[in-house]
Amino acid sequence: MRSARLGVLLLAGGAVVLAAGESKDKGKAPALEVRTAPRMGFSPLNVLATAELRGGDDLERYHCPEIEWDWGDGSKSVRESDCEPYEEGTKIQRRFTAQHRFLRAGIYNVKVTLRRADKVIKRAGVRVTVRAGLGDPSMR
User: Fold this and answer.
1) Is residue 58 part of a domain?
2) Is the pLDDT of residue 112 over 60?
3) I need a labelling partner for 53 at 20 to 30 A (CA). Which of 7, 17, 27, 74 fits?
4) Is the pLDDT assigned to residue 94 strictly greater than 50?
5) Is residue 16 in a domain?
6) How far apart, in whole angstroms, are the C-alpha atoms of residue 110 and residue 38?
7) Which phi and psi angles does 137 have, rounded to 5°?
8) How far lies 63's CA from each of 14, 19, 21, in Å?
9) More confident residue, 37 or 137
10) What is the sign of the dihedral through the CA atoms of 50, 121, 29 and 127?
11) What is the CATH classification number for the domain harbouring 93?
């Protein structure tokens, strides 16, 4: 069995990409990138987070993953996929989105984890900065 080699790249804008080499699926694994819009703002701050598998091949182990968003504020969101069984030539889903509202000022490390059959297949994260807005409970 061949083990994947992982590297971490910090992109402009603070996005973190975890890239892997070849896997036992006999193909090149895609990299996972996560970003939020906006990355900075005043509370309460609504963000749209996007995780995207870039490059690589449409490998079976990336088909129909469970997605966990850890928002860094003590809350998590989990989405389980309901997909048709994988067949040779199936195109994997490459983009996943979720929304979250940060109520308090702080710096939050948002992490996304892709799992399949209870095994982590990819992780990535990005930082969100929230400044105190009007009525922010952290100002009291």
Assistant:
1) yes
2) yes
3) 74
4) yes
5) no
6) 13
7) -60, -25
8) 27, 17, 18
9) 37
10) positive
11) 2.60.40.10
Q: Which residues contact 104 (CB under 8 A, 6 or more apart)?
A: 43, 73, 130, 132, 136, 137, 138
Assigned domain for 22 exists: no
What tokens were used for 78? 């989990």
In a domain, 19, yes or no: no
Identity of residue 140: R
13 vs 27, residue with greater confidence: 27
* Spatial strand order in the sheet of 6-10: 6-10, 16-20, 31-37, 45-54, 95-102
* Per-residue model confidence as pLDDT tens digits over 23-58: 345 789 999 999 999 999 999 999 999 999 999 999
User: Bigger pLDDT: 53 or 16?
Assistant: 53
Q: Range of 64's domain? A: 27-139
Structural domain tally of the chain?
Answer: 1
